[in-house]
Amino acid sequence: MMYYGFGLFAGMCVACMIFFNNLLSQVVGVYWGTFIYHTIALILITAFSLIYKPSRKSGGRLPLYYYLPGVASVLTVLTSSYSVTKIGLTLTIGLSFFGQLIFSNIVDHLGLFGMKKRPFHPKKMVGLTLIFSGVLAMIYL
Length: 141
Hints:
Helix content is 77%, strand content 0%. With 141 residues, it is mainly alpha-helical. The protein has one domain (2-140). It is globular.
């Protein structure tokens, strides 16, 4: 049950991140805002790493796709900074959430990136349809 709370908290953090980065980007520009955001993240994770001294769990080379979160983070911050000013925070988050659901269902179904395969069940279409309907309602109503 605790992990559901973590997921909810992570979603709230993403909404805060997008909102405050948008404010920063309005003052310094999208690219500098993204640079500042990621510089602060680098400083924080460096401090945490120095304090907690995490060890690497395995040796050897990492597959290239292990570095994709950095790319995804930059793209998320850039695109959401543009989106929030044009369509608002709620719709940006709604579309982002729906995009995450689509991508995560594909990864689960195909077992991409070393994940265990979790076949797509047609029952999930009910939830996806409801969420997509909500996004459409936010756009057109």
